[in-house]
Amino acid sequence: MVWRTRPLAVASVAVAAATALVAGCATGSGGSSSGASGNTLTLWTHNAGNSAELDVVKRIIKDFNGSQSKYEVKLQAFPQSDYNNSVVAAASARKLPCLLDVDGPNVPNWAWGGYLDPIDVSGSEVPLSDQLPSTVSRYKDKVYAFGFYDVALSFFARKSVLNEYDIRIPTIDKPWTKAEFDSALAKLKKSGKFQYPLEMGTGGSGEWWPYGYSPQLQSFGGDLIDRDGYKTASGTLDGKSSVEWATWFRSLVTKGYMSKKSGADPNKDFLAGKSAIQWDGSWNAAKNTEKFGDDLAVIPPVDFGNGPKIGGASWQWGMSSTCSNKAGAQEWLKFSRQTKYFVDYAKATSTIPATDAAAKQVDGYQPGGELNVFVQFARKFAEVRPVTPAYPYISTEFQKAAQDILAGADPKDSLGQAAKDIDNNLKTNNNYAG
Amino acid sequence: MTSLLKHLGGHAGRVALALVFALPLLFMLVSSFKPDDQIFGDLGSLRAFLPVGALSLDNYTGVFERVPAARFLVNSVLISSITVVLGIIVNSLAAFALSRMRWPGRKLVLTAVIATLIVPFETFALPLVWWVNQLPLLRVNGFHLEWTTGWMDTYQVQIVPFLANAFSIFFFHQYFQSIPKELDEAAIVDGAGWFTIYRRIVMPLSGPAIATVAILTFLPAWNSYLWPLMVVQSEELRPVMVGISYFFQLNVGWGQIMAYSSMITVPILALFVAFQRSFVNSIASTGVKG
């Protein structure tokens, strides 16, 4: 086959022209090496594609830009799935924006890594002391970030199904014990109506694993790391209680109570009646209520011996350490701390408002409302994930170990290896001192 | 009778194999017209592959409401096309020098180039971010040009690092080896220089290799995901693959994902169909097989 060379030459010229055009288009934010250009500040959020929450961010920015003439905030939205990669890459190039949101458990790591600076929001409309503790992130006694909402996990079930199999519907004051929970699952499995009576979202990935399952580990008496100084995981993550949790967790699969890997959309399966009990977040509460109405039971976490536990801390806002206009960034942060925005976030995202004042204005979350139970869960049962810069590493190791255990690996060996790897990481980083 | 059975068996095998590859695409396309509930409802039966039920274009409308899909598509076409065309020029020139010209150390250079194939991109992604951030950049500022530093958040940072490609060089090298060297000698006798030989003899005879490299360069450029997430902050510069993660939020819209996936798969299929014959020919002639 002989190809004509003239088209190639034409193509080469076209490419050269296109390259020049591209170079000309290379405006972007190239000149903003410090997250701000004068009084124009860049803000990053993880909400690209999530119009509900993104619209609230846009509203705050619009209100802020309109409320004064000194500063202007510009939005850049990223997809959540790889938001952290974008931030890490930008930090390595010293291209972080002035303002950015961060998942609560990552705050210590980003503070230790020098991505974030402490913030001072004193004098804002809503004082930090009014917030749910899990919605304010501190590291070394300094506030680095705050959130407008939190989420809570709970079990969801249908009262009619539980009643049919003579299963007690637990309350916040009297949650299920481990024995009751196991018995309930056995009854539901025996009924033959459910291939897997329990839906725990085991097809999830990333942070879902420590967020969803480490509170159960804690309720057994274990933990991800020894929180006394955060210097070792050995003896804690692979301790007796943790191994008991892992053995029980695996037994859910071997007894056929739970799928080793759940479907693409566990909530859809629950709504379709494929599972009887679902371990899920408050974000799906409204959808579940809409489908089942009064028949929906929002069930507190099981008390496996050390009290019921759920994870705390969701997305929060902070300021980068490389921001060249920290005064402007602090102004935006302070401005955003108005009750109306706490309300807007909670309404838009079906999450728990971070303050009681906001909760009173959100349907369902008022005292006595059908969703107020999540506020109580967050206040009563929430435990923040380990406040250490090592957390992202711990999270990954725990996920690997838990997935291996569900796949059939020996619980003690898997947790032991994870604890050993975490200890090595701590040692390599000098226990994240400094 | 036996040969007829063999014939039918062979056909049945090929049809079965074709179905294995075609059914996921068919599922994607059909599901893109169905509401989410129906997608899940049809999963347990053959209906999953059939355009039945409440079909509509709602998912496609939803895609454009959720993602600046048209902009992402234009960006990807631009980035992938420029990467392909410049990549073919750069890599074929390198391969020509390694294959047709005699100079000391060329085997060592070829070995070094091939050795880079085993280094996964993820291992040097962060250093590369640092590196591209040190490069000089000519920017348009109002009505004049100005020099600045750092290629972050530009089109060229999505193109230039991927122009030189070890596999493409190796592929061109192997193909060029199959073109008789006597053609070069005859051309030299006629007074041609090396560039003339490259431009007028070797490249015109390398159509299948060019087509194959075009496909193999286009695919990763089109599928690029991690790199643009790391180096591009402005939404208006993002490529299509980043767009897919816009849908994986709390309320995942599976129908919209299928619609978006269908939209971004069509260009790839069209490219492959256009170059299919050349692709197969060149794979067969270079001895490079998957």
Tags for this model:
heterodimer; A: 434 residues; alpha/beta; D-Maltodextrin-Binding Protein, domain 2; 4-stranded mixed sheet; 16 helices; 16 strands; 42% helix; disordered N terminus; B: mainly alpha; MetI-like fold; 2 domains; two-stranded antiparallel ribbon; cell membrane (chain B); Sn-glycerol-3-phosphate transport system permease protein UgpE (chain B)
Task: Give a quick precis of the structure.
By secondary structure, chain A is an alpha/beta fold.
Structure description:
The complex is a heterodimer of chains A (434) and B (290). Chain A is an alpha/beta fold and 434 residues long. Chain A folds into two domains: 181 residues, D-Maltodextrin-Binding Protein, domain 2; 203 residues, Periplasmic binding protein-like II (D-Maltodextrin-Binding Protein, domain 2, 3-Layer(aba) Sandwich), CATH 3.40.190.10. Helix content of chain A is 42%, strand content 15%. In chain A, strand 1 and strand 2 form a beta hairpin. In chain A, helix 2 packs antiparallel against helix 12 and helix 15 runs antiparallel to helix 16. With 290 residues, chain B is mainly alpha-helical. Chain B is flat. Helices cover 65% and strands 4% of the residues of chain B. The model of chain B has no long low-confidence stretch (mean pLDDT 90). Chain B has 13 helices and two strands, in the order ααααααββααααααα. Chain B has two domains: 56 residues, no CATH class; 219 residues, MetI-like fold (Orthogonal Bundle). At the A-B interface, helix 1 and helix 3 of A face helix 2, helix 4, helix 6, strand 1 and helix 10 of B. Chain B: This is Sn-glycerol-3-phosphate transport system permease protein UgpE. Chain B: It is found in: Cell membrane. Chain B: Keywords: Cell membrane, Membrane, Transmembrane, Transmembrane helix, Transport. Chain B: It is a multi-pass membrane protein. Chain B: Its main location: membrane.
